[in-house]
Amino acid sequence: MLEIKKKDQIIVLSGKDKGKNGEVIKVLRKDDKVSKILVRGINMASKHKKPTRNDPGGIVKKELPIDVSKVMLVCPGCSKPTRIKVNITEGGKFRVCKKCGQTIV
Fold first, then answer.
1. Which of the four pLDDT bands, split at 50, 70 and 90, describes residue 15?
2. What are φ and ψ of residue 68, in 5° steps?
3. Which of 29, 52, 82, 93 is in the most buried spot, having the most CB atoms within 10 Å?
4. What is the pTM of this model?
5. DSSP code at position 82
């Protein structure tokens, strides 16, 4: 089961964007494990784009992948960075906040 999923809120723990919050845009896997994620507004880079017939070109800002070990999930209930545990019931597997015990959808 994945610890961090698309549309989760995260906080950056280390690096140039330390302390910033953001929403996960895309989860990048390698060998069935999450290794990197794209986060809206974090780890931005300027890319120079050549003009084409349909596009004027110029300098475009885009998100670059960030390692999953440098971020932590923010619980929607207590709004604090938290680790998660997995509860297995008859209904399936659920992610649960270790601090407040609320189920994370």
1. very high
2. -70, -20
3. 82
4. 0.83
5. -
Token reading at 79: 């709004």
2 or 99, which is more confident: 99
- Structure tokens that stand for 3 in this block: 């610890």
Q: Distance from first CA to last CA of the chain, Å, rounded?
A: 13
Fold of 1-74: SH3 type barrels. (2.30.30)
The b/e string for 12-44 (b: 16+ C-beta within 10 A; e otherwise) is beeeebeeebbebeebeeeeeebebbbbeebbe
Closest-CA residue to 19 (of 63, 74, 62): 74
pLDDT for position 64? 96
Rounded to whole angstroms, the Cα distance separating 97 from 95 reads: 7
User: How do the domains of the chain map onto residue ranges?
Assistant: 1-74, 77-105
